[in-house]
Specification:
The chain is α+β, with helices and mostly antiparallel strands. About 65% of the residues lie in helices and about 10% in strands.
């Protein structure tokens, strides 16, 4: 089966090599709110609230920002995409079917959690849910897909 949208298999190892440390270090820096001052830069912003809790909005400004969260966010998204959409060593129709089912399952599961959050989580806690929600579709897909592939490999080994 021709799969033009998948990366070559060798990219998967690179993706894992970037994803695991960036997810761990990114989560730790988020929990402990670590922001080293040497990563403070003037960066372009499309929309800025000049004063906290005010209606004063400015467009297209330079703002001083610590870019650590952005660095880890970008690393996690790119490496997750690479891991999720790299070919398996033997990519066939059944693996493509597992890939599609896992992606659909991940989207349903993710939006189920989001619907629950809309109903029962509010204020700043909801903002945190939305921040994590940027990453969870890909992470749920990776977990589900790899779990199904490992079950397939175990059943193939059992049959031999």
């Amino acid at each position: 089966m021709k799969t033009n949208y998948l990366f070559p298999n060798k990219f998967k190892r690179i993706g894992w090599f970037i994803l695991i440390p960036s997810a761990i270090i990114g989560l730790v820096t988020l929990v402990y709110q670590y922001e080293p001052s040497f990563l403070d830069f003037n960066v372009p912003a499309i929309l800025v609230n000049e004063l906290k809790f005010s209606e004063s909005k400015k467009f297209f400004r330079m703002v001083n920002n610590n870019v650590l969260n952005e660095i880890f966010g970008i690393l996690i998204i790119i490496s997750s995409l690479i891991v999720a959409f790299s070919k398996e060593k033997s990519e066939d129709e059944y693996i493509s079917k597992i890939r599609l089912e896992s992606l659909v399952w991940a989207v349903y599961f993710n939006y189920g959690i989001l619907l629950f959050s809309f109903l029962f989580i509010f204020d700043l806690s909801f903002l945190w849910v939305m921040i994590f929600n940027m990453f969870t579709v890909l992470l749920f897909f990776i977990i589900r897909f790899n779990w199904r592939i490992s079950k397939l490999k175990k059943s193939a080994n059992y049959e031999e």
